[in-house]
């Protein structure tokens, strides 16, 4: 009951910060995900199973110990092995015995030692697999968090655009009533309001979907309110340049658990070859046993009188010990096939390691190229937004004095809105791509500059 109460209190304490304060940073989101995500728990269970496999492999070196107790009742013809005589007629007899036996393998082609080594490697591989799951979740949290932040900023910008369009519609309506604007002008402004609202609803939906994905990673209730703390990125400039690719690859190879896991899988496969070859060696085992027994028709060998129970247990004691040597001659090619399969599994593991190294190299290079491309696109989008904003402001002034028509104003505002949305997306994309490089290098994920 005390343990259960502690568990309940731990869960309640962990849930209090989110219940009281719905604001959460990316660091806190990662921390909660690593503590609660079910994928991590599944990997932890697999690691625990591997621990038991290693414990079993070590335990196989010890001798076994067994106790056997028997009690038999017989009627009619039978040979009583305890009394050493034939029982005839319609007679009931009873016999009982107890035996302690033990056996230990002295030599089996080093199979048991190699099994211990293989299970140690497997345990390390499962530890790397657990780290890989954690890393994948960290990347997923980072992706969904920044996606939600981006959609949140787009939603704010969309709301501002809707407010601007509605205010323009109000002004246009007044001017239409005064006769200075036409029905076509009103229709164009209403079209702009409807278009801005469609963008707003699309951004709201995208924000809610990305927030839902983030909550699922954190194993949170979908209905629980959550406010994300946006990074203050401003004119964020990445510090890592393209010339650092060699250093980044070195650090990525040392950090990324995918490579560690693939290398350990290769070592595990190599150990399996030794285990398979061990079956071709002779096996030597030592057996010992000690026991005694009793028979209801047992007699004293000298006096030929019925022997008491205690005397029989004392006089019938026996001890035995022996060695068993098993030399394999022909086993239907089982050993040869097992060795060949183990060699093939080693080749598969080596190929998987090469693929993991190639994929990591490709991924890191792609991440660097994506970061540079995002930075270039952001610089271009920044210029495009500034020019579109100036163009809209000039055209709006011309529209107010009647030089430009509503269609021209609508087109200029649409282009400005599009440029602003793209600027927001690329601003966070540059920040995100730089954090991806941090992830591959093993740096802690943080939004602090």
TrEMBL record:
It is found in: Cell outer membrane. Residues 339-366 form a coiled coil. InterPro entries: OMP_efflux, TolC-like. This is TolC family protein. It comes from the Bacteria. It comes from Rhinopithecimicrobium faecis. Keywords: Cell outer membrane, Coiled coil, Membrane, Signal, Transmembrane, Transmembrane beta strand, Transport. Pfam families: OEP. Residues 1-22 form the signal peptide. One of its GO terms (molecular function) is porin activity. PANTHER family: OUTER MEMBRANE PROTEIN TOLC (PTHR30026). Belongs to the outer membrane factor (OMF) (TC 1.B.17) family. GO terms for cellular component: cell outer membrane; efflux pump complex. Gene3D superfamilies: Outer membrane efflux proteins (OEP).
């Amino acid at each position: 009951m005390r343990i259960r109460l502690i568990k309940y209190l731990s869960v309640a304490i962990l849930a209090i910060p989110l219940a009281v304060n719905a604001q959460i940073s990316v660091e806190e989101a990662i921390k909660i995900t690593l503590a609660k995500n079910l994928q991590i728990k599944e990997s932890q269970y697999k690691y625990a199973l591997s621990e038991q496999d290693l414990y079993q492999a070590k335990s196989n070196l010890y001798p076994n110990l067994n106790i056997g107790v028997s009690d038999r009742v017989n009627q009619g013809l039978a040979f009583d092995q305890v009394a050493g005589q034939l029982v005839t007629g319609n007679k009931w007899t009873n016999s009982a015995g107890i035996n302690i036996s033990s056996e230990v393998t002295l030599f089996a082609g080093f199979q048991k030692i190699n099994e211990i080594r293989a299970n140690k490697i497997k345990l390390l591989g499962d530890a790397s697999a657990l780290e890989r799951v954690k890393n994948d979740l960290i990347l997923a949290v980072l992706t969904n968090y920044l996606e939600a932040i981006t959609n949140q900023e787009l939603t704010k910008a969309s709301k501002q655009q809707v407010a601007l369009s509605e205010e323009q519609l109000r002004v246009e309506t007044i001017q239409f009533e005064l006769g200075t604007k036409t029905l076509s002008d009103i229709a164009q402004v209403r079209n702009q309001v409807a278009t801005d609202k469609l963008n707003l609803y699309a951004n709201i939906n995208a924000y809610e979907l990305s927030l839902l994905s983030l909550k699922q990673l954190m194993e949170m209730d979908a209905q629980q309110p959550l406010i994300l703390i946006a990074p203050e990125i401003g004119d964020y400039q990445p510090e890592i340049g393209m010339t650092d690719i060699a250093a980044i690859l070195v650090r990525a190879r040392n950090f990324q658990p995918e490579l560690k896991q693939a290398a350990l899988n290769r070592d595990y496969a190599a150990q399996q070859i030794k285990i398979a070859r061990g079956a071709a060696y002779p096996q030597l085992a030592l057996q010992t046993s000690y026991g005694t027994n009793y028979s209801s028709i047992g007699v004293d060998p000298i006096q030929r009188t019925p022997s008491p129970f205690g005397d029989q247990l004392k006089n019938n004691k026996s001890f035995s010990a022996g060695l068993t040597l098993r030399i394999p001659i022909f086993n239907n090619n089982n050993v040869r096939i097992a060795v060949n399969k183990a060699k093939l599994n080693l080749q598969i593991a080596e190929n998987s390691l090469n693929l993991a190294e190639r994929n990591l190299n490709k991924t890191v290079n792609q991440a660097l190229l994506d970061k540079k491309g995002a930075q270039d696109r952001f610089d271009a989008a920044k210029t495009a937004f500034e020019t579109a904003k100036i163009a809209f402001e000039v055209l709006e002034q011309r529209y107010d004095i009647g030089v430009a028509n509503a269609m021209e104003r609508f087109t200029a505002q649409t282009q400005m809105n599009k440029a602003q949305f793209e600027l927001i997306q690329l601003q966070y994309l540059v920040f995100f791509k730089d954090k991806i490089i941090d992830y591959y290098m093993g740096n802690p994920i943080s939004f602090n500059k």
